[in-house]
Amino acid sequence: MYRGRSGSIASFSFRLLLAELPMHSGKPKESLTKLFTVLACTREMLQNLRKGLCEDGSLMEITEADRTDSIRLVTVT
């Protein structure tokens, strides 16, 4: 289905929810730490894509259309 691509299939929304949940239970510091971890991960993915690598930094070949779609999905607007 994903042509040999590896990685997690957990959606970004789910990861964001997991980072925000501690805030709702009185742990805002923990939540901020997790949110900044998500931000760092997305920045790293974007940097890898702009270098011509896959999101995870591997040398796997992906089509330019897939790369463009990934950059569009990772870029925060």
Give structural notes:
Keywords: Signal. The chain is mainly alpha-helical. It has one domain. The chain is built from 3 helices and no strands. The model has no long low-confidence stretch (mean pLDDT 84).
Which percent band covers the strand fraction? Answer: under 5%
**What is the domain tally?**
1
Low-pLDDT runs of 5+ residues are none
Span between termini: 28 Å
Give the strand tally.
0
> What's the mean pLDDT score?
84
Cα shape: elongated
Radius of gyration: 14 Å
Q: What is the chain-wise order of helices and strands? A: HHH
Tally of contiguous helical segments:
3
Helix/strand/pairing category: mainly alpha
- The share of residues in helices is 55-70%
Task: Give the biggest beta sheet.
Answer: none
Keywords: Signal
